[in-house]
């Protein structure tokens, strides 16, 4: 893991200690990570594959960084909606990317 990713992971782990988990298993953080990881994309496996950006995934009460990857759309006509942070009164929560 690169130093930047380690720093972000540690910041998230510390923030998660004070965060709360709702019945929908969302994790709220008060310190959002700075996303400064540079990723070299490998060549796509086929012309129909799209790049799924890096994400934060919930894991045991905190977020872990997950690298990007190539994915084939599950059916024609769908697009990938990237994940993003959403601010709430309780803190920030990560909204995962998904096909739409």
Description:
The protein is of the alpha+beta class. It has one domain (3-99). Helices cover 15% and strands 30% of the residues. The chain is built from one helix and eight strands. The protein has one helix at 3-17, and strands spanning 50-52, 55-59, 62-66, 69-71, 80-81, 84-88, 91-95, 98-99. The strands form four sheets. The protein has a two-stranded antiparallel ribbon with strand order 1-4. Strands 2-3 form a two-stranded antiparallel sheet. Strands 5-8 form a two-stranded antiparallel sheet. The longest helix is centred in the first third of the chain and has 15 residues, at 3-17. The N and C termini lie far apart (31 Å).
Provide tags for this entry:
8 strands, single chain, 15% helix, two-stranded antiparallel sheet, alpha+beta, 30% strand
Number of domains: 1
Strand content bin: 25-35%
Number of helices: 1
Apparent shape: globular
* Cα-atom radius of gyration: 15 Å
Helix and strand succession? Answer: HEEEEEEEE
Average pLDDT, rounded to a whole number, is 77
Sheet/helix structural class: alpha+beta
Largest sheet: 2 strands, antiparallel
Helix content: 10-25%
Give a short overview:
This protein is 15% helix and 30% strand. With 100 residues, it is an alpha+beta fold.
Can you lay out the helices and strands and say which pair or pack?
Blueprint: H1 3-17, E1 50-52, E2 55-59, E3 62-66, E4 69-71, E5 80-81, E6 84-88, E7 91-95, E8 98-99
Antiparallel strand pairs: 1-4, 2-3, 5-8, 6-7
């Amino acid at each position: 893991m690169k130093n930047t990713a380690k720093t972000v992971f540690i910041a998230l782990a510390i923030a998660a200690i004070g965060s709360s988990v709702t019945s929908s298993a969302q994790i709220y953080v008060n310190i959002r990570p700075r996303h400064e990881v540079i990723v070299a994309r490998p060549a796509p496996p086929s012309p129909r594959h799209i790049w799924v950006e890096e994400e934060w995934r919930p894991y045991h009460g905190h977020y872990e960084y997950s690298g990007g990857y190539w994915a084939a759309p599950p059916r024609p006509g769908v697009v990938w909606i990237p994940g993003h942070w959403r601010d709430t009164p309780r803190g920030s929560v990560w909204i995962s990317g998904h096909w739409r």
